[in-house]
């Protein structure tokens, strides 16, 4: 009784993974399913995504996780903003609803983008991804990095001390 569903799942995974990508499909992450899942759940995930962006030379790429429609990552604020503001983009709720039972409630992750609550969240986040806000934060971050270099790193270099974050 369990053999048939198992065969169907394995067959679906083989077909999904062996299908050639479309010509304009994003690049695939050069690691396996288990490492992708482990890294996605780790605290280092944001830095791993930035490293992948530089390694692959693309800010949009696909995980090797056999999910219907694929699992994509967008590492550019311009593209993230486009997705957030696109009124025709919505989540496939049948894919995300299983997470509701794990969390015990609906969240932004599992809500439809057409949900009025999600609309308010989108409006709140869209400003932080605007080009003027990103430029403003870039200049602020640059200022603090330069202060850190001057006040901390140069003093360490003068004393021949080591820096171990």
From TrEMBL:
Signal peptide boundaries: 1-18
Tagged with keyword Signal: yes
InterPro entries in the record: Cyt_P450_sf
MF terms (GO), sorted A to Z: heme binding; iron ion binding; monooxygenase activity; oxidoreductase activity, acting on paired donors, with incorporation or reduction of molecular oxygen
High-level lineage: Eukaryota, Sar, Stramenopiles, Ochrophyta, Bacillariophyta
Keyword annotations from UniProtKB, A to Z: Signal
Record's protein name: Uncharacterized protein
Organism domain of life: Eukaryota
